Amino acid sequence: MIENKRTSDLLEILNNTDSEEGLKRYVQDTADYAVTDFLSYFIALLDENGISKAELVKKTGIERTYLYQLLNGQRTPTRDYLITMCIAAGLKLEQVTRCLELSQEGILYAKNKRDSVLIYAINRAYNVMQTNELLFEMNEELLAPQKKTREE
User: Fold this and answer.
1) pLDDT reported for residue 3
2) pLDDT of the residue at 149
3) Could you count the other beta carbons within 10 Å of the beta carbon of residue 113?
4) Nearest partner of 100 among 78, 123, 120, judged by Cα
5) How far apart are alpha carbons 66 and 21 in whole angstroms?
6) What is the dihedral of CA 126, 130, 134, 137, to 10 degrees?
7) Residues of the chain with CATH 1.10.260
8) How many CA atoms lie within 13 A of 48 on its CB side?
9) Which residues of the chain have pLDDT under 50?
10) From the CB of residue 29, how many other CB atoms can be counted at a distance below 10 Å?
């Protein structure tokens, strides 16, 4: 089943496709499972992890109405809000990376001090408060809810 395949497996299939007909088959087979936007992907991960929107509000520290606007697509999260939401949802680093890619935000970069602190915290399943404490100890800017969205 295509929906159970890892992205790396799909990439291997795609790399081994040697004709346009094969490409058309691949695209047709994967069309229903392609996730092309952050919000759909993130909501699916929340469902998969059994995290309600109300629980996410508590874990993020983001004001309830504002977070619901982010989750309903009425507002677009900044990179920090997105990372905060991902940490609160307990996502793994590869899932956080995918969320950042889908939202067209810069992925976490190991050569950047602040990003490396975030990677460390995500890999150790720190919650938002623990992550902010670590950022503070490392003299780095804390995560949201200090900032708003790009639209404000």
Assistant:
1) 54
2) 41
3) 12
4) 78
5) 46
6) -170
7) 38-137
8) 11
9) 1, 146-152
10) 14
Q: For residue 106, what are the contacts with CB-CB under 8 A and spacing of at least 6? A: 79, 100
CA–CA separation, 146 and 12 (whole Å): 41
Q: Residue holding tokens 């949201």? A: 144
pLDDT of 141? 95
CATH number for 38-137 (one of 1.10.620, 1.25.40, 3.40.1630, 1.10.260): it is 1.10.260
| Number of Cβ within a 10 Å radius of residue 34 | 10
Q: Which residues contact 119 (CB under 8 A, 6 or more apart)?
A: 93, 108, 110
Nearest 5°: the CA angle 34, 90, 139 is 115
Query: Which position has the token pair 């890619």?
Result: 101
